Automatic annotation (TrEMBL):
Organism of derivation: Streptomyces hokutonensis
InterPro entries for this protein: KH_dom-like_a/b, OsmC/Ohr_fam, OsmC/Ohr_hydroprdx_reductase, OsmC/Ohrsf
GO molecular function, one term: peroxidase activity
Keyword check for Oxidoreductase: yes
Descriptive protein name: OsmC family protein
Record keyword Lipid metabolism present: no
Keywords in alphabetical order: Oxidoreductase, Peroxidase
SUPFAM superfamilies named in the record: OsmC-like
Source species taxonomy: Bacteria, Bacillati, Actinomycetota, Actinomycetes, Kitasatosporales
Gene3D superfamilies linked to this entry: 3.30.300.20
Sequence intervals crossing the membrane: none
EC number(s) reported in the record: 1.11.1.-
Length: 348
C-alpha cells in the first residue's frame, strides 16, 4: 500500500456508496462536561458510518485558561482552539495524502503549521478573542513536484470537509429542549475581524502514516501531543479521534466553558454543564462521487443541559447567551479567510 494508505478500502466504500447513497452519510457525536472539581472533559461517542456503527471512545481533558479563575488549569492539556486547529489541519493533510496516493505519489514527509490570528484587544484568552483568520504552512519534502503539490493544495481548498466548514459559513443549531427551528443561532455572534489579529495560537500537525497524524503545541512539548486517526471502518487503526470529532470536541468544550462563565455571571454559581455536539458529513463530497454533494459538515447541532437544579427559563437563557459568545460558533457561522502556503524541500 503506497503511503500505507488503504486505497482498496476506500474504493470499496466508494462502490458501496454508488450502490446506496445512504452509505455516504457519516454521523459524528461528542460530549463535553464541565464540573467545578474536574474542569472540562471532552469525549467522543459512537459514530454512525452509513449503516455501520463505530464505537468511538476517546477522552481528552481540556485546559482551562487561568483568566477564568479555575484552579485545575493544566497548561499541558489542549485548549478548545488547539482541538479545532488540530481537526482543521489533519483533515487538510488527510485530503492531500489521499489525493496524492490515488495519483501514485509517495510522500517522504508532510506536515502543516496552522495558526489562528487572534485580536489581542478583546481579552487575554482564546475564549475572548475573535478569530481574525487562519494561516496554514504546508511543509513537504522535495521528492514530489511542486506543480503536483499545488494541485493537491487546490483539492484541499475545494474538497477537505473541515477546511470548507471554516471557509463556508454553516448554520449552528442550539438544542435547549425545544424544536430546533426555534433555536437557530444567527451570525455574526461576535465582532468579526477582517485583518489578522495581534496574537496567534498555533499547532504543528505531522503526517505519520496512512490516516494517522500527530498534533503538537507551539512549544513542541511531548505531553501536548494529540493523536488523530480514522476508525477501522475507514481504514484507520483507531489511534485517536478523527478530524471531524476534534472539531466537534473543540466546539462542545468551548461552549461548556462559556456556559460556566455565563452561569457564574448570572447566578454566582458555576454548576455542572453538559454539552453535546453532533454533525453529519456527506462523504460523496470528499470522494468526488457526486458534484452536487456538500463538502462541509452538515446538520451541526449543539445541545446544552445543566446537571444541577436551575429554573428552566434561566438555564435556557444562560445557554443562549453562552453560544452567542462562543468564538468557535462565530468561526463556523461566518466565513473565515484561510491562507495556505506551500514550502517544499524543508526538513520536517
Amino acid at each position: 500500500m503506497r503511503n500505507s494508505f488503504n486505497i482498496s478500502g476506500f474504493s470499496e466504500a466508494a462502490h458501496e456508496i454508488r450502490d446506496d447513497p445512504r452509505e455516504a452519510q457519516y454521523h459524528y457525536s461528542v460530549r463535553s462536561t464541565f464540573s467545578p472539581t474536574r474542569g472540562v472533559i471532552a469525549h467522543t461517542e459512537p459514530a454512525l458510518l452509513g449503516s455501520v456503527k463505530s464505537a468511538r471512545k476517546f477522552t481528552i481533558p481540556v485546559s482551562t485558561p487561568a483568566a477564568m479563575g479555575i484552579s485545575m488549569e493544566n497548561p499541558e492539556d489542549p485548549t478548545p482552539l488547539d482541538l479545532a486547529l488540530t481537526g482543521i489541519a489533519a483533515c487538510s493533510l488527510k485530503t492531500m495524502v489521499g489525493g496524492g496516493t490515488a495519483r501514485g505519489i509517495t510522500f517522504g514527509s508532510l506536515s502543516m503549521t496552522i495558526s489562528a490570528g487572534l485580536d489581542g484587544g478583546h481579552g487575554s484568552t482564546s475564549l475572548d478573542a475573535p478569530i481574525a483568520g487562519i494561516s496554514c504552512r504546508i511543509h513537504a519534502d522535495d521528492s514530489v513536484g511542486g506543480s503536483v503539490l499545488d494541485e493537491l493544495v487546490s483539492q484541499v481548498r475545494s474538497h477537505s470537509p473541515n477546511h470548507r466548514t471554516v471557509t463556508d459559513p454553516i448554520p449552528v443549531l442550539l438544542d435547549i429542549g425545544r424544536p430546533l427551528h426555534d433555536s437557530v443561532v444567527p451570525g455574526p455572534v461576535t465582532t468579526h475581524l477582517v485583518t489578522a489579529g495581534q496574537r496567534a495560537q498555533a499547532r504543528r500537525v505531522r503526517w505519520v502514516s496512512s490516516t494517522q497524524f500527530e498534533s503538537i503545541g507551539e512549544n513542541d512539548e511531548p505531553s501536548s501531543v494529540l493523536r488523530v486517526d480514522q476508525p477501522k471502518q475507514l481504514t484507520g487503526v483507531d489511534w485517536g479521534p478523527n478530524p471531524q470529532e476534534y472539531l466537534l470536541m473543540a466546539l462542545a468544550a468551548e461552549v461548556a466553558l462559556q456556559t460556566r462563565q455565563e452561569a457564574l455571571r448570572r447566578t454566582r454559581s458555576e454548576g455542572v454543564w453538559e454539552v453535546h455536539a453532533k454533525a453529519r458529513v456527506d462523504i460523496r463530497g470528499l470522494l468526488k462521487l457526486d458534484p452536487t454533494a456538500p463538502v462541509p459538515i452538515q446538520d451541526l447541532v449543539c445541545a446544552v443541559r445543566p446537571r444541577h437544579a436551575l429554573p428552566e427559563e434561566e438555564w435556557r437563557d444562560i445557554a443562549r447567551a453562552a453560544v452567542r459568545r462562543s468564538v468557535l460558533v462565530d468561526l463556523l457561522t461566518n466565513p473565515c479567510s484561510m491562507k495556505i502556503d506551500l514550502i517544499c524541500g524543508v526538513p520536517v
